[in-house]
Amino acid sequence: MAAPFTVRIQAEDFDAAADAAALTCGRTDIGAVVTFTGLCRADAGHPDGALTALTLEHYPGMAEEEIGRLVEEARQRWPLDGALVVHRFGRIVPGENIVLVVTASVHRGAAFAAAEFLMDWLKTSAPFWKQEERAGTPGRWVEAKDLDDDAAARWAPPARPDAAE
Fold first, then answer.
1. Which residues share a beta bridge with 113?
2. Beta strands in the chain (DSSP E)
3. Do residues 134 and 52 lie in contact, with contact meaning Cβ atoms separated by under 8 Å?
4. What angle, 0 to 180 degrees and rounded to 10, lies between the N-to-C axes of helices 108-125 and 146-153?
5. Angle between helices 62-77 and 108-125 (to 10 degrees)
6. Which has the closest alpha carbon to 133: 78, 56, 27?
7. What are φ and ψ of residue 37, in 5° steps?
8. Residues of the chain with pLDDT under 70
9. 33-65 pLDDT, tens per residue?
């Protein structure tokens, strides 16, 4: 049986269905499983041309630790019975998998919320860097997007009214 809370950083591709099945194998306490798979897309309408590859670099050790911290925070917020985060690194071409988030809980609401929380925070706080290759242009590093920061910010705890005093 797979460990109920797991983080994997790897160059190899993954099988989302097999990973989700391994998380729930033999379990009768789980009522909902949510999976999210992020894929590399060609982004054909981009003004600089279609994406030919994405190279992801990470900070080994720190990436696992930070994602593990996010999984632990999700466990504190929602009644999860299991979670798996797999994030690839290296050169990835359009159509290939990049990231997998699987969450399991007794009820679907917790599984959906935890998966969305993890993806929003992975986009902003996991120590990964992306370099885009586009047809006819040199590779360029991708900058953080305000849209991703806004998505993660909605999960921040509300400010306490007495905090400014």
1. none
2. 5-10, 32-39, 51-58, 80-88, 90-92, 97-105, 128-134, 137-141
3. yes
4. 140
5. 150
6. 56
7. -120, 120
8. 1-3, 144-155, 157-165
9. 999 999 999 988 887 788 999 999 998 999 999
Report how far residue 80's alpha carbon sits from residue 98's, in angstroms, rounded to the nearest whole number: 23
What value does the mean pLDDT of the chain take? 88
Q: For residue 108, what are its two tokens? A: 């679907």
Q: What is the model's pLDDT at position 1?
A: 47
Sign of the torsion formed by the C-alpha atoms of 16, 19, 23 and 26: positive
Parallel, antiparallel, or unpaired: how do β-strands 51-58 and 90-92 relate? antiparallel
Mapped onto helix, strand or coil, the DSSP state of residue 81 is strand
Q: Report in angstroms the alpha-carbon separations of 124 from 62, 107, 136.
A: 14, 27, 29
Q: Closest Cα partner for 152 from 132, 114, 125, 129?
A: 125
DSSP string covering 8-51: EEESS---HHHHHHHHHTT-SS--EEEEEEEE----TT-TT--E
CATH architecture, domain 5-138? Alpha-Beta Complex (3.90)
Task: Determine the residue type at 103.
Answer: T
Cβ atoms 56, 88 nearer than 8 A:
yes
